[in-house]
Design a protein that fits this description.
This protein is mainly β and 273 residues long. It has two domains: 8-50; 55-272, monomeric porin ompg (Porin), CATH 2.40.160.40. It has one helix spanning 14-50; strands spanning 52-68, 73-83, 90-102, 107-122, 125-130, 133-144, 147-166, 169-190, 200-214, 224-236, 241-253, 259-272. The chain has an eleven-stranded mixed β-barrel. Strand 3 and strand 4 form a beta hairpin.
């Protein structure tokens, strides 16, 4: 049998030029088919950055604590300290106590209040402004083999004020009622697939959506408020405590077409007594 002739690699050769031409035709055909989708993608991408209000990079520290008062009643509280952009100064401190009634091993009802201090800067003046609220929530835990799936549905009622400068202070006036609905879900699983989460390394992913249930006109004038997406890894010290480190991306809708994104490094501790 005769040997097959090798097609020259030289693109100036007629056969090589034909291959380039056919390849170009294929690319043009694909672009014609999907050009609308491609243009739409770049339009959306450009619109996002063109209308962005702010991009931030900050750090959050969080402690979540549960203390059993009886088989059916728990004292719960979490505290958080959040930095402003580039970790320069504290931006928010939260202390959120509450009581939980345990319906069964998977379902609980909770209520409490949140004491929140925000540090605001208006026209170069930095001052602390309180933002206290009450909340109610339904918690559901599901054990799926060696993993845990958590759901949390929370309603919180708050009063949004108008902030003004009075002398050397930032003062609140004319507070307006706003109710916010939050849905949180979290998946936790140990790295070892043969063991339950009793001790050792684990990974976690979670997301929380925020919606304005009432008084949206006093917030961002929209139904959707924000989302918080998180992924991290932790170490379960034992039955009573976890330590965890992860990354959170927060997307917050502003008024009109503005929005804020926040890239967060979060360090968390969990205590169960």
């Amino acid at each position: 049998m005769g040997k097959k002739k090798k097609i020259p690699d030289d693109k100036s050769h007629p056969i090589g030029m034909t291959k380039v031409y056919l390849c170009a035709l294929k690319i043009i055909s694909v672009l014609k088919t999907y050009y609308r989708s491609i243009l739409s993608f770049f339009f959306v991408l450009f619109s996002m950055f063109a209308t962005a209000q702010q991009h931030k990079f900050s750090g959050w520290g969080m402690s979540v604590n549960t203390i059993a008062l009886s088989p059916k009643l728990n004292l719960i509280f979490d505290s958080q300290l959040r930095s402003n952009h580039q970790w320069k100064q504290p931006e928010t401190f939260i202390l959120r106590p509450g009581l939980t009634y345990v319906l069964n091993k998977n379902v609980s009802l909770s209520t409490g209040f949140a004491l929140i201090q925000n540090w605001k800067t208006i026209q170069g003046l930095r001052d602390g402004v309180s933002d206290n609220r009450i909340w109610q929530q339904l918690g559901i835990n599901q054990q799926l083999k060696n993993a845990v799936l958590q759901h949390r549905i929370r309603m919180e009622e708050r009063w949004i004020p108008v902030l003004k400068i009075a002398g050397s202070n930032i003062v609140k006036s004319d507070p307006k009622f706003n109710a916010r609905f939050r849905y949180f879900t979290r998946w936790m699983s140990p790295f070892s697939k043969t063991k339950k989460m009793t001790k050792g390394m684990y990974w976690a992913v979670q997301n929380e959506f925020f919606f304005n249930a009432a008084g949206a006109s006093h917030a961002n004038r929209k139904l959707f408020d924000q989302s918080r997406t998180y992924a991290g890894s932790g170490y379960r010290l034992g039955k009573h405590a976890d330590l965890e480190l992860g990354y959170m991306f927060v997307y917050t809708e502003g008024r009109n077409k503005d929005f804020t994104t926040n890239n967060i490094i979060q360090l968390s501790s969990f205590l169960r007594l």
